[in-house]
Specification:
Layout (H helix, E strand, L loop, with lengths): L12 E7 L2 E7 L11 H4 L2 E8 L4 E8 L14 E4 L18 H12 L4 E5 L6 H4 L13 H19 L9 E6 L1 H12 L6 E5 L8 H8 L7 E7 L6 H14 L6 E8 L5 H15 L12
Parallel strand pairs: 2-10, 5-6, 5-7, 7-8, 8-9, 9-10
Antiparallel strand pairs: 1-2, 3-4, 4-6
């Protein structure tokens, strides 16, 4: 956790197809680089604070990564990316399944491209995780509390972050990222609240959860300016990749001018943090384009 990451060479593309603002990619899997240990200087850029979430009626920890140079640039303001399942985002020690190493990925992108983003990771609710991240209903997993979580994210967490840090609070510079059920939350947030979220990283979404997801997606197009990166692994289980491909096609069918959708399927990749970590650098670069297309900053 919390060290500099050397970005791996780009994966070999198996197939690429771009249509309008949408792009589809299939590629073979790759081994993600292991997280590195933190330095004392790195730790100064991490903060954790608690918030009462009134809609859910719980207290929850919020973990914040600040980009390199944040403390020295008093006039700088930064885009923000909100992650679900905060225990798994920065530190393997707080996760039961490994980490995304989002801090190392962002440090590496800052070093290579000058990309500077504040990352905010909201902890999941343990045994309540499934209900809290469920926006659409499934009778086997009732009751759903996803609407309350989303209300707290928009009405409590985001205002607290905007007040506490030098953010760029507009939708064009605010993103949401999640995997599995967290991917469903990212999907719902960017679709239902385009005035808040202009970017979404929807990783390995559990589209099997409810047929209502497909119905709503078909009737609610993305808005101009929004960018959605939809990813799935080819070895995540029966139906995961076909469901994601079908969902990407639904969004593409109504994609307005000025919106962008990128779909990526990685052959042999499983449903785990290592797979999501491997894709994260490219997803971040694409989501916050053209930041990574610029020349690298001078040393």
């Amino acid at each position: 956790m919390m060290g500099a990451l050397r970005l791996a060479a780009p994966f070999a593309l198996g197939m690429a197809l771009g249509v309008g603002g949408a792009a589809w990619f299939l590629r073979t899997s790759t081994q993600a680089e292991a997280p590195r240990a933190a330095s004392v200087a790195d730790l100064a850029r991490f903060e954790t604070f608690g918030l009462a979430l009134p809609a859910l009626g719980v207290d929850r920890s919020v973990r914040v990564y600040l980009p390199p140079g944040y403390a020295d640039c008093k006039d700088c303001r930064y885009p923000v990316l909100y992650f679900m399942d905060g225990q798994n985002v920065f530190d393997a020690a707080t996760s039961y399944a490994g980490e995304w190493a989002a801090d190392e990925v962002l440090d590496g992108l800052h070093e290579k491209h000058g990309l500077a983003v504040i990352a905010v990771a909201i902890d999941h609710g343990g045994e309540a995780r499934l209900q809290e991240l469920s926006v659409w209903s499934n009778p086997e997993f009732a009751p759903t509390k996803g609407e309350a979580f989303l209300a707290d994210l928009i009405g409590t967490v985001k205002p607290a972050v905007d007040a506490r840090y030098r953010t760029q609070p507009g939708a064009a510079t605010t993103g949401i990222a999640g995997s599995s059920l967290g991917g469903l939350m990212a999907h719902a947030a960017v679709m239902r609240h385009p005035e808040v979220f202009g970017r979404a990283l929807v990783f390995s979404p559990s589209y099997w959860f409810s047929p209502a997801i497909a119905e709503e997606t078909a009737s609610k197009p993305l808005q101009p300016g929004q960018r959605v990166y939809l990813y799935v692994g080819g070895s995540e289980g029966d139906g995961m990749q076909p469901d994601a491909e079908a969902m990407a096609a639904r969004w593409k069918a109504t994609l307005p001018e000025g919106a962008a959708l990128q779909f990526l399927a990685v052959a042999e990749a499983g449903h785990n943090e290592a797979a999501w970590r491997a894709v994260l650098p490219e997803a971040l670069c694409w989501s916050f384009a053209p930041a990574c297309e610029a020349a690298s900053p001078a040393p």
